[in-house]
Amino acid sequence: MRSLFVLAVVGLLAQLVDGSLGMAYGVTSTTLLLTVGVAPALASASVHIAEVGTTFVSGLSHWRFGNVDWSKILWMAIPGGIGAFFGAIAVSYVAAELAEPFVAVFLFALGAYILARFSFRRREKPVRVKAIPGKFLGPLGLFAGFMDAAGGGGWGPISTPTLLSSGRMEPRKVVGTVDTSEFVVAFAASVGFLLALSLSEIPWGITGALLVGGVIAAPIAAWVVRILPMRILGTAVGGVILLTNMRTFINTIGIEGAAAYVIYGAIVVVWISALAFSILVNNEEKVDVGEGQTA
């Protein structure tokens, strides 16, 4: 009973991060399950079945707070669902880990770019809202959906930084749109897992605990996205992208031991400095707007 309570708390915390930053529910939950000895396919299945409920509540909450760009939902959700279905089937036969180093390097670079864009560009708007073509959104959704199901997490970590780096969507719209479209991805992946696995193999207690925690956190996270200023939210997302991908990135380029810890520490310091600077710039912009209105 205690272990299920702990899992519910993990689900709550993971959804708070995922719902407010557009990523990390699948990665956090799957990593925990793998750590305690759950097989990769079963861990991913449990997380995705739980996500059917959490993403539904999260989508409703983001819609309620005006965080969703509905013009992009179908372009991402349908290819994402297709990719997730086949990813769920493939996870029993294909080692998705083979692609992880390449994806981590790409996402690490995007994280650094997003951090610079939203925190260190003083007196310049980090976002200019423009249309994003379906021929870009479709392949993005397909790849992110496949990696999400096959790797136990990837929809948010791939979709959110890619859309943010385009500079064509507000951060809250990116987070809300990615989280809302994830319902289709989670549902399709769950169908694939249920076809590939026996119902008796699914750890339903674990799934239920993750679901309960995630459902409680979803409305809170959507509200946080609604009230956080654009610069601060974008900087927070950029830092999380760096932190979640730095271990794989550092291992890929062959750095180990003390040097790796130095890099970890440096990244944390840079992120904290970037957050502080983005808060400073945001406050200055608010003052400028207030003075402009007074004049």
From TrEMBL:
Task: Specify the domain of life of the species encoding this protein.
Answer: Bacteria
Subcellular localization(s) per the UniProt record: Cell membrane; Membrane
Q: Carries keyword Transmembrane?
A: yes
Coiled coil (UniProt feature): none
Q: Does the keyword Cell membrane apply?
A: yes
What membrane topology is given? Multi-pass membrane protein
- Name the UniProt key words of this record, in alphabetical order: Cell membrane, Membrane, Transmembrane, Transmembrane helix
For this UniProt entry, which segments traverse the membrane?
Answer: 32-52, 73-96, 102-120, 202-225, 232-255, 261-281
Q: What is its main location?
A: membrane
Cellular component (GO) terms are: plasma membrane
Task: Say which family it is in.
Answer: Belongs to the 4-toluene sulfonate uptake permease (TSUP) (TC 2.A.102) family.
* Protein name (Swiss-Prot/TrEMBL): Probable membrane transporter protein
Q: Which organism is it from?
A: Rubrobacter marinus
